[in-house]
TRAP transporter small permease protein
Amino acid sequence: MVRVLLRFAHAVDALNDRVGRSVKWLILLVTLISAVNALWRYTFGESSNAGLEMQWYLFGAVFLLAAGDTLKHNGHVRIDFIYGRLSRRGQLLIDIFGTVLFLLPFCALIIWFSWPMFMLAWQSGEMSPDAGGLLRWPVKLLIPVGFGLLGLQGIAELIKHAAALCEEPSA
C-alpha cells in the first residue's frame, strides 16, 4: 500500500513539475504584454483594457498554477526560527499537522466556494465591465484549478512525510 501511495505522490510531483515549468513561460508573456502596453500608451497615448486584463490574468495564473510546484520544492514561507531548531522527526510532524489542519482544509474551502463562482461566470458568459475587457470565466477557473493542484501536492507531501516519519527512528 505504501508503494502505491508513493507512486501517486510521485505522479503528483511530476504533474506539478510540468505545470511549474510551463507557467514559467507565462512570466515572459506577461513581461512582453506589459512592454507592448507601455509602448503603445506612451507612443500613441492610448491604453488597452484587454491588454491590461491579460497581464492581470496571466500574473494570477503564474501564482495560482505554480503554488503546487512551489510547495513541492519547499518554497513557501515558514517560521524557520522554530522549525529549523526541531529534529527531522519534529519537522515532519509539523509538516503533517500543518498539512492536515490548515493546508488541505483551506484548499478544499477555496475550491468549494470558487467552483460555483466559475460556473456562473462560464454559463453567463460573464465579461469584464471595462470597455474592451475579457471574458471572466477563464480567470475564475484558475482559482479552483490552482488550489486543486496545491491540494494534490499537499496530499503528495503528506504521503511522503508520513513515509519518511515511519523510517525515522523515534528518539
About this structure: The chain is about 80% helix and 0% strand. The two ends are 26 Å apart (CA to CA). The longest helix spans residues 2-44. The chain has a mean pLDDT of 93.
